[in-house]
Amino acid sequence: MIIVMSPSATKENLEKVIKKVESAGLRTHISEGEEVTIVGVIGDQKKIANLEMNMMEGVEKTVRITEKYKLVSRNFHPEDTIVDVDGVKVGGKQIVVMAGPCSVESIEQLREAAKAVKAGGAQFLRGGAFKPRTSPYDFQGLAEEGLKMLRQVADEEGLKVVTEIVDKDDLELVGKYADLYQVGARNMQNFQLLKALGKANKPVMLKRGLSATISEWLNAAEYIMAGGNEQVILCERGIRTYETFTRNTLDLSAVAAVKELSHLPIIVDPSHGTGRWQMVQPMARAAVAAGCDGLIIEVHPHPEVALSDGDQSLTPKNFNRLMEDLGKIAAVMERTV
Amino acid sequence: MIIVMSPSATKENLEKVIKKVESAGLRTHISEGEEVTIVGVIGDQKKIANLEMNMMEGVEKTVRITEKYKLVSRNFHPEDTIVDVDGVKVGGKQIVVMAGPCSVESIEQLREAAKAVKAGGAQFLRGGAFKPRTSPYDFQGLAEEGLKMLRQVADEEGLKVVTEIVDKDDLELVGKYADLYQVGARNMQNFQLLKALGKANKPVMLKRGLSATISEWLNAAEYIMAGGNEQVILCERGIRTYETFTRNTLDLSAVAAVKELSHLPIIVDPSHGTGRWQMVQPMARAAVAAGCDGLIIEVHPHPEVALSDGDQSLTPKNFNRLMEDLGKIAAVMERTV
Amino acid sequence: MIIVMSPSATKENLEKVIKKVESAGLRTHISEGEEVTIVGVIGDQKKIANLEMNMMEGVEKTVRITEKYKLVSRNFHPEDTIVDVDGVKVGGKQIVVMAGPCSVESIEQLREAAKAVKAGGAQFLRGGAFKPRTSPYDFQGLAEEGLKMLRQVADEEGLKVVTEIVDKDDLELVGKYADLYQVGARNMQNFQLLKALGKANKPVMLKRGLSATISEWLNAAEYIMAGGNEQVILCERGIRTYETFTRNTLDLSAVAAVKELSHLPIIVDPSHGTGRWQMVQPMARAAVAAGCDGLIIEVHPHPEVALSDGDQSLTPKNFNRLMEDLGKIAAVMERTV
Amino acid sequence: MIIVMSPSATKENLEKVIKKVESAGLRTHISEGEEVTIVGVIGDQKKIANLEMNMMEGVEKTVRITEKYKLVSRNFHPEDTIVDVDGVKVGGKQIVVMAGPCSVESIEQLREAAKAVKAGGAQFLRGGAFKPRTSPYDFQGLAEEGLKMLRQVADEEGLKVVTEIVDKDDLELVGKYADLYQVGARNMQNFQLLKALGKANKPVMLKRGLSATISEWLNAAEYIMAGGNEQVILCERGIRTYETFTRNTLDLSAVAAVKELSHLPIIVDPSHGTGRWQMVQPMARAAVAAGCDGLIIEVHPHPEVALSDGDQSLTPKNFNRLMEDLGKIAAVMERTV
After folding, report:
1. Is residue D244 within 8 angstroms of chain A, CB to CB?
2. D282–A contact, CB cutoff 8 A
3. pLDDT class for B68, splitting at 50, 70, 90?
4. B167-215 pLDDT, tens per residue?
5. What is the residue extent of each domain of chain A?
6. Exposure winner among C42, C77, D149, D176, fewest CB in 10 A?
7. Distance from C-alpha of B113 to C-alpha of B100, rounded to nearest angstrom
8. A&D contacts, CB < 8 Å
């Protein structure tokens, strides 16, 4: 940490600052400039993390040098992590694809979707059984009934199941049917849920919050890893900006940023990220070219009758086309789909 | 709902749209313009809320006319709601003030803060016993020990207790000590928590999410009210923008907006909203002038040693000055502090 | 400036960094921590301002300590500046009010507006003769004809004229009729226009850009002052955020921030800042309570037929009510309207 | 346009609305719902564009159905436009690359950069001679001296010149040396400059504003086209969001959006879009995969001594690597580099 003194700080102010730092078991390094004096703080990072100096008289601002997350950091784990989801490797050479409807609606709908998903070459069936919806009057999902359908249909087609968990009390229930827990954007900082997942023995896919910084997102992953569960996959799904043409602004630079800062695999959701099915194909291609490890895509046999998110779902035919495209881009990246 | 057909839509596209609307038990009203045709959808609002038309061929966009929330809407309840928190009325003539430290740290700290808060004229003691923190390595609060201290000290000074709940499992625990549940910004769309609070028999203060629209915020309040708990207070605490000088951008226009759209009381948090103690006083004055029903303010006997949020906390002396100021502005608004 | 070396930086990297700093005529101060080494840069601020270090190998990031603006800074000019606009003092005890229609449409419309504005107690008549509009097909203003009307009507009522300049070629033309140049949000970083206004001998009101930080805004004011024109008034008019209920998000904390960072007067535009006439009155009151030096408000005799911005304009009757309110808040602030 | 009446609107309110629409030479179509009445407005789009209804009593809101831009719209010009820049086609099969330093600093620097740019396979040399800088004390560019160097060095290497114009008075001067005018983000809504460029006989590259919506950007392009200059290229360069890890948030979905809404070519600037040279390569690949028609990239022979934007510039060696990568992605897109 660096403490920047204000130009009007007195010698006494400076002395008090030094005293406070030292009384926290840390050392200081003073650098006197022509206009301002700067105090470097040296020592144990945990102690530094707890140091609050901004209120001291004469302090203009403080600058933190290091991020608080450790386990998710590439500095602490230079090689890429590969997360094994019941035999499917995420973060390795293969770019994994998770696809299916936004919500599980019926066994027929799901089966039709799963066949299309499998035929296109995806590894995972996705589908929401618990839906966090803005309004209490919107369709909230089929709950356990939906989970059962997911498992049954996925097994029929030889697919893995990824589905959202919204309540820590459902850890066992969802874990009974799913291969991969999904934490949605609205729950990215639901720390109780993250802590519970830190104790789970199945991998977790953590979506970026609606307006989460990359740092906050990695700190949220740190909650899961700090609990002992190191099988974490990150998922970029678009952030909230002033633009209204798209539902969110898909931030593909997050892929490159995460690859630089962390060893965890990252996948991209171009369906929620744009909210427009016409944009899913170009953005999925772009995500692979940016270096992502996988994609999660909404596919619905009949998007025009979907109970949620119809306008961002691909038809099976369009999904097939997309997968062909992705294969070619993946090859350039020396990867497979 | 209005369905706007694209200029290139065929007659057949239009017929299918009409058919889908009618098969949902709704009626249509067709308006043919020179460039585009528009389909008005008429009938039961719940059915309309579930209608998804964007994926139909020939549909350019749909426009929803009415908000989904009902119980929080001023249309459905024209008079201001006054929430009674164990005898203290929020939303009435008096502008209530909730004050205290960000975190409960020790009984001495809390008692000193509570005396200052009471002396200044506040009605509520605030203080976090459960702290949702970005990093798992930050101070997470004293939990029940902190709650006990809050209750004890508040009783000594004749103050009410408002404190954050972060887990639905703590409903009873927090309810045992607090007079008013606080839902923090990160949990505004933690729908499991909102549903649990909908069954609680104590009032709830719902903070606006970091990047929540006013509509999403009111829908979150609807979750609580739809569960049966109509004692909801809203709290504006700053939104996330590109500006970095302040911690958040305090959106005082939300006060006027909420007063127009809803009957619920709204209070303002200028401490988190700005993140700079120097700005708390002007922003608190402005909030009262904008028409808010209360304020929640961080006061710490020794902000320079606070375990969290020291730089946005007022000293007792500055809090006193603030309260004097607020009294004068309140008088102009024909209210009291 | 502080240079933070990355944990993996070599001794050689550090030596090159030091060499580059020294070869720019600056001195270094090295602080070796347990994890990272930090290089403080000491010397002439202008030289530091031109130093680019981020690309050097081994450099993790650089942190600038001081802002680049000087003339607008309160550090360099501790007392409040009062700008004299042909006898009307802006930044003094009186809170000035500028009011009138968005666009000048006709002499009748303007005269009716000016009478209302004068009757309400405002000092300035506002009105656009040159309108920067998003679409080339929107009404672009009456140009010199509009300026003449503004001057004539203002003189009839004893008001000053403030109006927007969009082109540096119009400096003389607009200056012939106006008492105060207005630079609109879209031109805040039109540096050619700012430089031209730096040579003008009339005061300038500089609106904040749609997504300008406070620092960028003050630097834009520095362009005008650096040219020799020290008569600058700042104007907060709302920033662009994700919220869509209001046209912009009026950032009243900018008032407190500007008062801390600069000596220049600041006024607030609640009409553009909210885009809804219902919100103008509460936000105007809040702005005065936050400590602003003036307000600029859209008033139109018949808002429902206005050629632009009808939905944010007050009727003369509502303007009168507003001015009464403002007088009371101003009195609390020990100021007058 | 659709006018939504409020639930409490009276019959008289409705009649006045209808009367106002009709008196503007337009027709209405009334759709009475159970809760609200909707008025469709039919007729000449220009008349509708000028209609302001929000202030009328009983009107809740209005919804515009069609965008105001025409010439840039794909509806009015379904085929892709190919802009010919002195023989180099932008928007055709070849993905064009513009590269060079942020600022022109000296003939040696520029020549070294140009050789690298040419060797890598780019078609254009970029470099700023007029720099719009946040602070008046930052390096402002070499002006005509810089333009001359650009032309000379580009001619030596057989490259085209693209450079920024910041002042309409420089139209002839910049046009004398450049093949393609660049309008920077800060000037996207400098309508005087856009109008002047509408009269120019050379093509224009229009960068997206820092917080411009796609609609505003296309309307800005309409200003140029409405003036008679149909040779317009769009350039996505990142938008301003709350994220601070990157300099801007590169919005690659804008590529897909522009391709849907407009026939104009679009190129991408991953250097300004991310502000970090490490991210330029993945984002450039992603941009091509998203469907862009070109890239503009900062290349500096010695980024560590650059006068501006050193941390986002590629070395010649990294630029070469990038170009190899792009060739492979382009091939998948059935294009060339």
Report:
1. yes
2. yes
3. confident
4. 999 999 999 999 999 999 999 999 999 999 999 999 999 999 999 999 9
5. 2-63, 83-332
6. D176
7. 6
8. 114
In this predicted complex, what is the ipTM? 0.89
Tally the residues of chain A.
337
- Closest CA–CA distance from residue D254 to any residue of chain A (Å): 9
Q: Which residues, listed in sequence order, are joined to residue B225 by a DSSP beta bridge?
A: none
What is the spatial distance between Cα D155 and Cα C337, in angstroms, rounded to a whole number? 64
* Alpha-helical regions (H) of A79-184: 107-120, 144-157, 171-177
D33 in B contact zone (CB under 8 Å): yes
Rounded CA separation C146/C152 (Å): 10
Residue D190 in contact with partner chain C when CB distance is under 8 A: yes
Partnered with residue A220 across adjacent β-strands are none
For chain A, list the contacting chains (3+ Cβ pairs, <8 Å): B, C, D
Other residues' Cβ atoms within 10 Å of the Cβ of residue C93: 12
Q: Which residues contact C240 (CB under 8 A, 6 or more apart)?
A: A242, C210, C211, C248, C249, D211
SS (H, E, C) C255-315: HHHHHHHECCCEEECHHHHHCCHHHHHHHHHHHHHHCCCEEEEEECCCHHHCCCCHHHCEC
Of B103-107, B307-311, C210-214, the range with the lowest mean pLDDT is: B307-311
Q: Which of B113-127, C127-141, C193-207 shows the lowest mean pLDDT across its residues?
A: C127-141
Residue of A211, A243, A259 with shortest CB distance to D214: A243
Question: DSSP states of D171-209 as a string?
Answer: HHHHHHH-SEEEE-GGGTT-HHHHHHHHT-SS-EEEEPP
Show the DSSP H helices in D24-170 as ranges. Answer: 45-49, 107-120, 144-157
CATH architecture of C83-332: Alpha-Beta Barrel (3.20)
Counting beta carbons within 10 angstroms of the beta carbon of residue A86, is it exposed (0 to 12), middle (13 to 18) or buried (19 or more)?
Answer: exposed
Answer yes or no: do D239 and A249 touch at CB < 8 A: yes
Q: Is A216 on the interface with B (CB under 8 A)?
A: yes
Q: Looking at beta carbons, which residues of chain A come within 8 Å of C38?
A: 2, 29, 40, 65
C278's tokens: 């219902």
Q: For residue A306, which of A102, A150, A100 has the smallest C-alpha distance?
A: A102
Centre a 10 Å sphere on the Cβ of residue C11 and count the other Cβ atoms it contains: 9
In this complex, the chains that touch C, judged by 3 or more CB pairs closer than 8 A, are: A, B, D
Q: Do domains B2-63 and B83-332 have the same CATH topology?
A: no
Cβ burial, residue C13 (10 Å; 0-12/13-18/19+) = middle
Token pair 């932008």 in the structure block, residue: D90
- Of A121, A112, A120, whose CA–CA distance to A156 is shortest? A112
Structure tokens at D161: 């010149």
B291 contacts B259 by C-beta, under 8 angstroms: yes
Hey, which chains touch B, using 3+ CB pairs under 8 Å? A, C, D
A2-63 folds as: Alpha-Beta Plaits (3.30.70)
Which one of B217, B252, B268, B337 would you mutate to disrupt binding with C, by most C Cβ within 10 Å of its Cβ? B252
Q: Residue A173: how many CB atoms within 10 A of its CB?
A: 16
pLDDT number for residue D310: 67
State the average pLDDT over residues C304-328: 87
Q: Please tell me which of the candidates B32, B34, B45 has its beta carbon nearest to residue D35.
A: B45
* CB of C289 closer than 8 Å to CB of B285: yes
Nearest Cα of chain B lies from the Cα of D244 at a distance, in angstroms, of 8
To the nearest whole Å, the CA of B277 is away from the closest chain A CA by 9
